[in-house]
Design goal:
Layout lengths: L6 E3 L12 E3 L1 E4 L4 E4 L6 E3 L2 H6 L3 H6 L22 H18 L4 H11 L11 H7 L8 H12 L2 H7 L29 H15 L6 H10 L5 E3 L5 E3 L2 H19 L2 H19 L5 H6 L14 H7 L9 H34 L25 E6 L3 H8 L5 E3 L6 E5 L10 E4 L2 E4 L8 H11 L3 E6 L3 H22 L6 H22 L2 E3 L6
Parallel strand pairs: 3-14, 7-11
Antiparallel strand pairs: 1-2, 3-4, 4-5, 6-7, 8-13, 9-10, 10-13, 11-12
Length: about 525
């Protein structure tokens, strides 16, 4: 990426060769404007007083400390994605809502109502994003806990105070009364693009493919495919791609992110390990800020999910005076497997994915999980074995209800997980064809229908992950997980926090997120924030 856009983050010397230099968003917050610099949408200024107040609440500032893609820097299986956070995504959605709202000739009040809808409830995510959402909804659920909790967070995090200040009338879900949300802002069909899906695809695409490990022609093609000027609004309010070939690249990107990242077998196992780390951190009170919030009076365990990612990442570290053998096992397993997978991505996976994007006639999906295998991503891992398995109807029904992988092979020395796929992520966007619009899969000269079918097949498969532990370590892990679950369950149900305690948690998380970004150079403050 050009160092002219945003802030350039060089390779991390602690994980050299397994990370890449890349640009990230940088915000400058002044009294009368917010300056945004970044590699995707470029440099721009927000100077609307309502928007400035909306994006400087404790609720929004805390979202700067929440990873969008569930990863810590040390455990991520892909380079760079740890730097993708909720707050930056919401700022990008603001720019897109302004862009498409004006394209649709909407009034300022109509556009503001869409802002409140699009840039609101993601601020209510727990730490580690969907990970703890799965855990809080009985190890499964529809990933909507943050939406249910948004009204509470909006009240204690300052958002409703901003709405009241500007005379906005909203309902119990913090939606503007009487407002209509167009399809381009909240698509009703999974096939279609909206601002949330486009922002997700664009940001992850640049983290994967806009760095010096990638061929220049691939970098340019990816940037063209996510260029905001590549999209238009249809007469019935849907988002469409002007160029079918760039629409194909965009759609391929999301297929890769779903099956080769979010649903990757190792990433699924890491999901369970991270949840256990959070459980342990709470039940043994390894987060120092817990005492500041509850004064030693333990509350229901999920109340503490509103700390920020870094709080739990710090709690996973051990050392003199902070020893916990179970945490040590978890953190070492996460970090070792993540480091090896980052290397495999750069050395063996990035080239086939790049070739796949360049070849507009590619008919085979480049996944090692298909039979026969389309690609070979290098030597077998030294720390973990992964495979896909055909699920029985009974297994599929069970795993559909449980997002967290299930530990199996109780009678063996191995530590193995079985899981079904997570949310099925794909698009089949509308693309311009002459004077009308058609679905991308309907264009016979482009092979998207076949690629989408292969991707959909992958979504029916289960994944099995086996860690390469000695029998002693496997037994320690199993025993530690059993005791950890028991300890966590004893505090799972308990008194909820008071409103003041929740406010302290949100405001404290906001201060720590701001401090971390100021230290990293991704946030420049020229005014004092009210947190």
């Amino acid at each position: 990426m050009s160092s002219e856009k945003g802030l350039f983050l060089p390779e991390d010397p602690n994980i050299t060769r397994f990370s890449t230099g890349h640009n990230v968003q940088r915000l400058t917050i002044n009294e009368t404007y917010i300056l945004i610099e970044e590699p995707w949408l470029g440099d721009r200024v927000i100077n609307d007083p309502f928007a400035i107040d909306f994006f400087t609440t404790p609720s929004f500032l805390r979202s700067l400390g929440l990873a969008q893609l569930l990863k810590s820097k040390e455990s991520s299986t892909l380079p760079n994605v740890w730097s993708f956070n909720r707050g930056w995504g919401l700022i990008d959605q603001y720019t897109m809502v302004e862009h498409f709202g004006k394209m649709s000739e909407l009034s300022k009040d109509e556009i503001n109502s869409i802002h409140i809808y699009c840039e609101g409830d993601d601020q209510a995510h727990y730490a580690f994003s969907h990970k703890l959402e799965f855990a809080s909804q009985k190890w499964g659920g529809p990933e909507n806990q943050h939406e249910k909790n948004w009204p509470m967070i909006a009240h204690i995090g300052g958002t409703t105070a901003v709405l009241d200040k500007y005379g906005v009338h909203y309902d119990e879900k913090i939606r503007v009364v009487g407002s209509k949300i167009p399809e381009w802002a909240a698509a009703s069909s999974q096939n279609d693009l909206d601002v949330d899906r486009l922002q997700y695809i664009a940001t992850e695409a640049l983290l994967w493919f806009d760095n010096d490990e990638v061929a220049p022609e691939v970098r340019e093609l990816v940037k063209q495919s996510v260029d905001i000027n590549q999209f238009e609004i249809t007469p019935d309010g849907k988002m469409a791609c002007k160029d079918p070939k760039l629409g194909l690249v965009l759609s391929k990107l999301l297929l890769l992110f779903a099956s080769e990242h979010y649903n990757d077998p190792l990433a699924r196992a890491q999901l369970h390990l991270d949840v256990h780390g959070v459980q342990r951190a709470i039940s043994t009170r390894r987060i120092p800020y817990m005492q500041d919030i509850d004064q030693g009076q333990m509350r229901g365990a999920t109340n503490y999910f509103y700390f920020i990612d870094q709080d739990f990442t710090d709690a996973l570290r051990t050392g003199p005076g902070n020893v916990d053998p179970f945490i040590y096992l978890i953190s070492n397993t996460l970090n070792a497997s993540g480091m090896e997978e980052r290397r495999r991505f750069i050395d063996y996976r990035l080239r086939p994915y790049s070739d796949f994007l360049l070849d507009e006639n590619a008919e085979n999906y480049p996944s090692e999980y298909l039979e026969p295998k389309r690609v070979n991503f290098g030597p077998r891992s030294s720390t973990v074995h992964t495979e896909v398995v055909e699920l029985s109807d009974e297994q599929r029904n069970e795993l559909d209800e449980v997002k967290i992988p299930r530990l199996v092979d109780e009678g063996s020395d191995a530590l193995s997980y079985l899981a079904g796929p997570l949310k099925n992520r794909f698009i089949n966007p509308l693309v311009r064809q002459g004077d009308s619009y058609v679905r991308l899969s309907e264009i016979k000269s482009l092979p998207y229908a076949k690629l989408l079918a292969e991707h959909q097949y992958l979504q029916t498969l289960g994944v099995k992950v086996t860690f390469a532990f000695t029998p002693e370590y496997s037994n320690e892990f199993r025993e530690g997980m059993k005791k950890n679950d028991e300890a966590f369950n004893t505090i799972l149900e308990g008194h909820t926090m008071t409103t003041d305690q929740k406010r302290k948690m949100i405001e404290g998380g906001a201060r720590r997120a701001v401090d971390a970004h100021v230290k990293a150079g991704t946030l420049i403050l020229k005014r004092e924030l009210d947190v």
